[in-house]
């Protein structure tokens, strides 16, 4: 194992990629004939097993739609809005809309991440379902140039669970102290630090660049 390694390990959403497209949840809620607040609550409440690779997309969306269906009540049936349809067509429409809603990247951050590969190792650890990960890998070929990419839906562990960070340590044959983990969520950074990684809560590119420059011992190329 190489000594004195330095690996910048990035979160994806909120750092390199944008957060969910505004209005996406309202659009999906309208498709389900459901108030946005109720849909949003179900969307996130059912999400953890999907993110962690313990549910497929159809299983996740079936759970969401069933949680939105009101219990049968003959006396109120004529006044209730129609229940969301749990069918393959509806599920696929929601799945594709959901993937699109998380598809935007910050091109300035993509360029910065790519530039770092001239001076250090670079990895990525993201909470993202497996089918979303496949779409992202297809749409963003620069991901294939990184030293390691770990998606929660593929590795079956989501941040802030220790297993997600352990996966990166083992896969990259490194020590926890070799990493600088960058995430916009403080609880994820604290979880990485608890395992011995260095951490930085992302607030912007300029602040991150200063932190990385301070952390790296030199700005010399590491590859021939």
Describe the protein's architecture and organization.
With about 220 residues, the chain is of the alpha/beta class. Helices cover about 45% and strands about 10% of the residues. It has eleven helices and five strands, in the order E-H-H-H-H-H-H-E-H-E-H-H-E-H-E-H. The protein has helices spanning about 25-30, 35-45, 45-50, 55-70, 90-100, 105-115, 130-140, 150-155, 160-170, 185-195, 205-215, and strands spanning about 5-10, 120-125, 150, 180-185, 200. Strands 3-2-1-4-5 form a five-stranded parallel sheet, with helices on both faces. Helix 1 packs across helix 2 (about 35-45), helix 2 (about 35-45) packs across helix 4 (about 55-70) and helix 4 packs across helix 5 (about 90-100). The longest helix has 14 residues, at about 90-100. Residues about 220-224 have low confidence and may be disordered.
What structural class do the secondary elements suggest? alpha/beta
Sheet having the most strands: 5 strands, parallel
Task: Tell me the Rg in angstroms.
Answer: 20 Å
Helix and strand run: EHHHHHHEHEHHEHEH
Share of helical residues: 40-55%
Strand fraction band? 5-15%
Give the structure's gist in a few sentences:
This protein has 224 residues and is α/β, with parallel strands linked by helices. Helix content is 46%, strand content 10%.
Pick out its properties:
alpha/beta, 224 residues, elongated, disordered C terminus, 10% strand, 5 strands, five-stranded parallel β-sheet, single chain
How do the strands and helices of this protein lay out in sequence?
Elements: E1 7-10, H1 24-31, H2 36-45, H3 47-51, H4 57-68, H5 88-101, H6 107-116, E2 121-126, H7 130-139, E3 148-151, H8 152-155, H9 162-171, E4 179-183, H10 186-194, E5 198-201, H11 205-215
Parallel strand pairs: 1-2, 1-4, 2-3, 4-5
